Amino acid sequence: MGKLINGIFGGFHGRIGNLVGYTLKGKYIIRKIGRSSKPLTPGRKANCQKMTVVNEILSPSLDVIRAGFRLAVAGTDKNEYNEAVSYNKKNAIQGVYPNISLDYTKVLMSMGTLPVAIHPTISQTNEKITFNWEVTDDQAYQYGNDRAMLVVYFPNLKISHCDLIGSKRIEGSHTLNIGPEYVNERMEAYISFVKDNGREVSDSAYAGALNTHKTLDISEKTDSETECSNRDSDYAGSDFDIISYREYLLASGIGVPEPKSGPDKIITSRWSIYVLKSRASDQRIGDCYLRFKQNDKFTAEMKVSIAPEEQRKGYAKEASSAMISLLFNKSEVNRIVKIVDAQDEAAIALLKSLGFKEEEYFKDSVFSDGKWVSEYQFALLKSDWK
Q: Is the pTM above the cut of 0.85?
């Protein structure tokens, strides 16, 4: 129930029908809530994916975002987090739908007028992540007492370790401790500086990445009776082949950027891509993504993306089935997990049709498109796969 503020001429707080009212920085805001029954256009789908990708790094770094963008929105009715989303959505996105991703080197965690960190770097010694930067004589004199604000983001886990009050700029170094369970995880790092009185902040600077190329072999199994090897191309749909991204690049004449991402490798700290290639048109109609859980060769994650014009043809189920068989037949994987939006009825129905069982419910676990989204975790055991 909504409540009128200052009589009939004021705003209201709360919910009335499909409207919700609230106050933001002294202004009355009214928003419409609810889901549209209209199918998403390609443009809206691309926008949703951009929002998801940006929120994945900003949401777990919320305290840094609030401090880093506070001065950028001072005196306006803008929100720090929304300002950060807007900037990174415009400047840190790469690729086109449905293969939109984040360019970590262009992500901004703070925005201000102080001098940025000069030649920042990171290094790792077990659980200690050390940031280093250069300090010029003029900076040491004028900005020496600025405090470092540091972020280490773990893309595969979608969490961040932050330090809002680090070493002074003049010290040129700061060490951030992480837990032993994160030592081998991929990391992306950022550093900003904040005036000792809190009244100025610098743009953040990208400090580098760690553990970006750890790989884990998937051994090929051979049927002793037929002497046939279960290569990736043996797993396919009725109208398409599934090939490794490396094979796709070679066939397209594009070249292979990373020699270690071959068809019999799966990238541990990143998604490994398999391409759905139409037999009729020889065009790319979708992608499959696989990865092992860090330090757990028995658990894998999987997702499938189908081009908008090729959807509703049963390709998602066919491709998912092929990828499940690939994991269970060519690796030691015993369990495949998948996390989905609790409101995504189509995805949930697909998982159930493949034999996945609901394991956990995460309420308001992801901040996406200006709201908190709940999720389900499903899992499939090798013993349950037919």
A: no
Residue 9: DSSP 8-state: G
Is residue 219 assigned to a domain? Answer: yes
Q: How many residues would you count in the chain?
A: 386
Tell me: do 126 and 202 sit in the same domain. Answer: yes
Q: What is the helix (H) or strand (E) element at residue 296, kind and residue range?
A: strand 296-306
pLDDT tens per residue across span 115-165: 999 999 999 998 999 999 999 998 888 999 999 999 999 988 889 999 999
**pLDDT score of 177:** 93
Tokens of 179: 């837990």
Q: Are residues 196 and 55 in the same domain?
A: yes
Q: How many helices (H) and strands (E) in the chain?
A: 7, 22
Q: Are strands 284-293 and 3-4 parallel, antiparallel or unpaired?
A: unpaired
265, two tokens: 């490798």
We report the CATH number of the domain holding residue 347 as: 3.40.630.30
CA gap 327, 198 in Å, rounded: 51
DSSP output for 160-226? EEEESS--BGGG-EEEEE--GGGTTS-EEEEEEEE-TTSS-BBPPEEEEEES---EEE-PPPB-TTT
Angle at 131 between CA 129 and CA 134, to 5 degrees: 165
**Beta partners for residue 3, in sequence order:** 13
Distance of alpha carbon 328 from alpha carbon 339, whole angstroms: 19
Q: Are 276 and 240 in contact (CB under 8 A)?
A: yes
User: Would you place residue 337 in the very low, low, confident or very high pLDDT band (cuts 50, 70, 90)?
Assistant: very high
The rounded distance, in Å, linking the Cα atoms of 303 and 320 is: 8
Instruction: State whether 237 and 200 are in the same domain.
Output: no
Are 224 and 177 in contact by the 8 Å Cβ rule? The answer is no
What pLDDT, in 10s, does the model give residues 197-234? 889 999 999 999 998 754 333 443 333 333 333 334 34
Mind listing the pLDDT tens digit for each residue in 253-267?
654 444 333 333 333
